[in-house]
Amino acid sequence: MSVRYYLDPFGCAKNQVDAETMLGFLQEARWVLVEDPVEAELIIINSCGFIEQAKQESINAVLMYRKTYPDKKIILAGCLAQRYAQELSTALPEVDLIFGNQDLAKITQAALLALDAGETNGSCRVLVPRDHASGLEAGVSAPGRRPLLSLPGSAYVKIAEGCDNHCTFCAIPRIRGPLRSRPLSGIVDECRELLDRGITELCLIGQDIGSYGTDRTRGSSELPQLLEALSQMEGRFWVRMLYLHPDRFPFPILEIIRRDPRLLPYFDLPFQHSASKILRAMNRRGTGESYLALIQRIRELLPDATIRSTFLIGFPGETERDFQNLLQFQTQAQLDWVGCFTYSREEDTPAYSMKPRIPVGIAAARKGLIETRQIPITEKQMDRFLGRTVEALVEGKVPAQTDQYLARLTCQAPEVDGLTLVRSATPLMPGTFITGNVCTRQGFDLELHLE
Ligand code: SF4
Question: Cβ < 6 Å from ligand 1: which residues?
Answer without folding.
Answer: 163, 165-167, 170, 172-173, 207-208, 245
